[in-house]
Amino acid sequence: VAQRLTEKGKHTVNLDNNVVDVRAVPVPLEMGLKFKLHVIISGRKINVSDIPELPIPDDWMRDKLELNFYKTQQGGGGEVQHVSYDSGSRTAVITFLRPGASNIFGGSPQYPFFVDERCYKLSVSSHAYLQLEKFQPYWGVSKKTILLKGIQEVEEDEESIQDMIEIHFQKPSNGGGEIEKIKYVSKEAAYVCFEE
């Protein structure tokens, strides 16, 4: 119904003693995005952040992280296969040899890190692989709603004008159909939403 009315464009509507010409135009929708996101939580890797800045070489820091997570107090993460450390961001990715070893760290986001008889708190989180699929922007026009423009000022109140617009656009002889909702938004415009 909305498409048929916008294709016709100009409509003459009787508002009691007045006749007004209105234009039916499509209602544009805001751009949206559709996508699928697959998240796979690693059973062997963890992300570590808030690593303290210490005056030691990067390879020493890697060794200290490996030793600390190998000897975890929560039962042991197990043998560490690899430590990827970034001193700039003070983060690391720890890879364990045993599958499922990273699950030990899921319950506690804070983890103790002992260096030179001091205890620091590291932030630990799951390491996830993200895969984005079917990323599609979309936009268009409403299939059920039209915007009527050019409603001239008349003496009737808003409710009467809304009623007369509804009567006109419900008639099949005028190209209309059953109306779900009508909203008179200003002195010159109204939105009409059809059921069909």
Automatic annotation (TrEMBL):
<dbReference type="InterPro" id="IPR012677">
    <property type="entry name" value="Nucleotide-bd_a/b_plait_sf"/>
</dbReference>
<protein>
    <submittedName>
        <fullName>NMI protein</fullName>
    </submittedName>
</protein>
<dbReference type="Pfam" id="PF07292">
    <property type="entry name" value="NID"/>
</dbReference>
<feature type="domain" description="NID">
    <location>
        <begin position="92"/>
        <end position="181"/>
    </location>
</feature>
<dbReference type="GO" id="GO:0005737">
    <property type="term" value="C:cytoplasm"/>
</dbReference>
<dbReference type="InterPro" id="IPR009909">
    <property type="entry name" value="Nmi/IFP35_dom"/>
</dbReference>
<feature type="domain" description="NID">
    <location>
        <begin position="1"/>
        <end position="81"/>
    </location>
</feature>
